[in-house]
Amino acid sequence: MATATESRRGARTSFQTQLLIDGKWRDAVSGKTFATYNPATEELIANVAEGDAADIDLAVKAARKAFDSGPWRKTDARDRGRMMYKLADLIEENLEELAQLETLDNGKPISESRNADLPLVVDCFRYYAGWADKIHGHTVPIRGNFFCYTKREPVGVAGQIIPWNFPMLMVAWKWGPALAAGCTVVLKPAEQTPLSALRLGELALEAGFPAGVINIVPGFGETAGDALVKHKGVDKIAFTGEGKTAELIMRNSSDTLKRITFELGGKSPNIIFADADLDAALEGAVLGLYLNQGQCCCAGSRLFVQDTVYDKFVDRLGAKVSERKLGDPFDPGTEMGPQVDKAQYEKILSYIDKGKQQGARVVTGGGPVGGKGFFIKPTVFADVRDDMAIACDEIFGPVLSVIKFKDVDEVIHRANTTDYGLAAAVWTRDIGKAHAIADRVRAGTVWVNCYDVFDAAAPFGGFKRSGIGRELGEKGLDNYTENKTVTIALD
Ligand code: ADP
Q1: Ligand 1: which residue has its CA nearest to atom 21?
Q2: Residues facing 404 on adjacent strands
Q3: The whole model's pTM is what?
Q4: Which ranges of 325-448 does DSSP label H, i.e. alpha helix?
Q5: Strand pairing report for 259-263 and 236-240
Q6: Catalytic choice (297, 335, 394, 471)
Q7: Any catalytic annotation for residue 263?
Q8: Which residue ranges of the chain lie beneath pLDDT 70?
Q9: Rounded to the nearest whole angstrom, what is the distance from the C-alpha of residue 407 to the centroid of ligand 1?
Q10: pLDDT tens digits for 13-26?
Q11: For ligand 1, atom 16: residue with the closest CA
Q12: In the annotation, is 124 catalytic?
């Protein structure tokens, strides 16, 4: 294992920094490395092997071999499941170390890494381990003297490109269904947060996955990511990230007509009616936006509050948000850490400036913390109009836009006036209103009197510009299976 000096805290002082290709750890063909930083201190954590087209080619060939002629094809589905259970057990045994690694590289509070990200990772692998031997076809009653049945076969080599906001959880969402279905994978982690995926690679080898089944190539999007998208040996691309990148990926994968699934951004409406349990709604508004420093694709960043309770609710929200404990992500009491990097930090601050320029009212926050690290004060804007930049664009930071509305039809229309459609929430004691929102808001997930409730069994994904396909649940397996119809003449 390559070593690097840890910049701050955490259980480990050395990190896996090489590429995983064909069951072996190796340097990039070019010999290049790139730096990954601690966003809380801006200090170097480690230099990581920088994969590009040459490494992607080796990884795809290894994945191809493991799929086409290697042991994976012949491994019983139940044994695939057992390896996945074993991986989940190993993650659980190393939970504290992995949580610290995630917090170090991403900056998220240790309480979230420990109590949210890691348990969801373990659960996802166990959930899909259970599916491995339950992926059935059907018998089909067709006309004539034939026996017709369908099978679900693995799609082949899956190229998986993930973002930095939930680095390990995104690995679990990608590997879980792919491995259960019998695919082999080439993973390209985000350049900001490569370390936890590499550690999961070590645990996957320990769990017994054969060489070539899991390959990991850290590197940049325009080089490693692009090569994966264009490679002829890849059957399918699963991507989570920005819509603009997805457009490029769709274009670049069209020559090879790859199967693609996308989980993209959002500007999700969180709708609070006057008749709601307003204490619970307040908690939900704060969790819905500020979890993970606002770096969630499903963040409830448009908070619609009914006019009769608007002013009071905004006051309470401002007070609650201003009390959020921001600081050292390794402090167990910290509720907010830094943004992931300088680019995100500057983008968010520019949106805060735009909000002020366009006439929204800063209730709390409204700027950087200052000093080392990419910390931004949790910010609430009130008196936000639908046409302001902070109400239209995905900011991916701790900036909440609070918007006033009058009635059900109006709020549904306004909630839907967006190119996105990932998630929505409604807070009300009136079941009719709850159903109206659940029925008519065009979003892949609707939460009623709750927010950010995730479960490996519940499908997740977007309408419109928020994505193509669904991850998690039984639906998530569709992304990694091909249907085959077999028809046999009986005489
Ligand atoms: P974010 O703003 O969250 O970083 P991106 O869409 O830029 O969102 O990045 C998500 C993932 O997509 C990262 O792993 C990144 O390296 C990768 N990526 C970026 N550009 C490309 C590209 N042109 N082709 C393939 N992958 C890319």
Answers
A1: 221
A2: 305
A3: 0.96
A4: 342-357, 389-392, 408-416, 431-440
A5: parallel
A6: 297
A7: yes
A8: 1-13
A9: 39
A10: 689 999 999 999 99
A11: 221
A12: no
